Each structure stands twice: as C-alpha cells, then as structure tokens.
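Help!! Second protein's tokens look totally different from the first
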Amino acid sequence: MTPDTPDTLEPHQETALPDWVDYNGHMNVAYYVMVFDHGTDKLFDHIGLGKDYREQTGQSVFVVESHVTYEHEVHAGDGLRVTSLILGHDDKRLHVFHHMHRTENNALAATNELMFLHVDLAARRSATFPEDAVRRIEALTKAQSALPPPQAGRAIGLKAKGSATG
C-alpha cells in the first residue's frame, strides 16, 4: 500500500499544546476528543465525505455514539499519532475505531470508537451513502482486514455491590 490510494490512510499527527493541559498536569479529556476529531476529518477527506463533500452535496456525517478510553497520560509537547480503522458499514452508518499513540514511545494513549450516520442536511434525516464513498469505504476496509481487531464494543458500568466481581 502507498499513500494517496483509496486503500491506504496515512495517520493523523499533531503535538499536544501547553494550553491543552489541565490542573492535573496532563491533557484534558476534551482535547483527546478534539485530536480524535482531527483524525476523523482526515478519514472523511480520504473517503470523500469531508468538508468539500458537505459543501457540494448538502449531506454530511454525524456522530451518533462515541466511546473513549484513556490508557496513558499525554503531556504538553507529546507528539500524537491517530490511526483509523473502519470496522463496518451499512447503507447509512459507518463504524470507526481510532487509536491514539504517543509518537516518542509508541505508547497507546487512548482509543475512540464511533458510530456515524450519513445525513441529508436540508431534511435533517438519515440518507444513504453515495456509491463512490461506499467504494472508498470498502477499499479501505479490505486493506485493513488483516490488521488485528481493536478493543471495540466495550461497555461501561459498575457491578452491583455484593457481586462476586464487584
């Protein structure tokens, strides 16, 4: 695989800024989501569903569910790399998983699992993906099929008190 082909996607990269650090001395949760959103923008540009698509067609993609895990702290100046995996799609939805790694040691900093819905902005209702986007989604999904499955589908909750595991 080489850059600039429909079946590859170069990682999104950026550096954690000092303004992103909270009173605990690490990157605030809101900035993890922002960095993942930048990775999403790169993915959507790659598959033809980015800003230009929205402006030309009046259609876009909305997040309808999101789950973030925080694995290792990120500090000001840390380089970050976001890789994106397409886990599945149907005619209106796209299931995506992002990994955020610190570039200096490749430590997994966080993950983000998302479900997107393709939307007609005038009607404010779901709409089917265009065929060209489906082709790009399928090409990228096929290229990524040999990658190990991510920790997708995790749930959040507490065990009831008094349970064997709680």
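Here's the second one for comparison:
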Amino acid sequence: MHFQFMNKFIPFLSVIVFLSSCTNEYISDGREVCFEQEVLPLIVSTCAREGCHNPATYEKGYDLTQYNDILRMVEPGSYRKSELYKVITSPFSPMPPKPYDRLSKEQITTISLWIEQGAQNAICMVEACDTSFVSYSSVVKPILDLYCNGCHAGPRPQGGVDYNNFNGVRTTVEDGSLISSIIRDGNTVNMPKNGNKLPDCKIQQIKKWVQDGAKNN
C-alpha cells in the first residue's frame, strides 16, 4: 500500500515543484517585442528626460538612450533578475521618480516580455504603412503615448506641452510645432528629445491626420 501511494505521490510532487519554480509572469504569445519600435522609445520617453539618464546628464552612469547601457540593467531571459524590471516595479522608490507617472501595466509587460525573449536588439519586420484612415484615438494618440508622453504629460509636462489631453496636442498642431519637431526641420527642437527620429510611417500617419483636419476622432 505504501509503495502504491508513493508511486502516485511522487509524480504529483514533481508537478508542484515544477510549478513553484516557474517564475515567468509574462509568457510570450509568440509575438516578438521589437526593441527599436517598442522598448527603446518607451525607455527614452520615461527615463531619458532632462536631468535623468541621457547623454547630457548621464545620471548614475547610465545613458538609457543606448542599447548597451540599457543592457547593463538587464539579465537577458530573466526579467525578475533584471535591475530594470526591479526599479520600474519597486513599491518604495520606483522609476521614474515622483512626480512623474509610473509605467503602466501594459508598458511593464512590454519591457518584461522583451527581457524574457532575450533582450535582443534585433531588426524587426516593417509592416506596410497604412494612411488610408488615420484617427486620433487609434493611431495618433498611441504614437504620442509611446514617444512623447513620458516628458509631455503628468503634473509638470516639459515645455508646458501636455499631450495627455487633446487640447494640448491641438495647440502644437495649430502652431506647427508638432510636425516641425518630428520631421526635424530645424525650426523647433527635435523630438523625441534624446531619442531617434520617429519611423517614417508614424510621421506620415501624423501628417495625414493633420492634413485631414486634426480631428478628435
């Protein structure tokens, strides 16, 4: 009887041990997270603002506009062991620090998946650019959220430009600074500041939205 019990118990115990050892909270659904298009813009927007981890101030010895410096905070394949994950989820001294907003659950998931997938600086597949119908809510706002809102939102938006609401965006459309800054024509400060130029497709989509009247649709 004891032998039969052990034969049944050992496989069950093995399952328990396996499950308890599994620490992955973010399991990839097969979608590759692209560093250049998803992770880098997010980190630059939230971590490389003025006075923080950028080429000018180099706070705590990190320039988080660069892949190699970001990689210093990452344990590829293990997000829980990564310093980057720890600081953006810390309940005590989270980054970005107050008064800036903490990263959203979706943003943390993106970074965690990228680390879990090996933290690669891979070239991602470029999809066809769709400018047939560009709405503010489904196209323009997500672009601004990713590339701009780390600086231009919250209680102290830089330059007094608040992209967390439509009126703030509309103001920069009307004075021409939105388009000027993202195409980098030299008439305004290049945006995103400290970051790479927006991908051509995203620039074309914003320009199409402006040409169509910059509606709050």
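Reply: Different proteins will give different token patterns, so don't panic. The CA atoms of residues 77 and 215 lie 42 Å apart.
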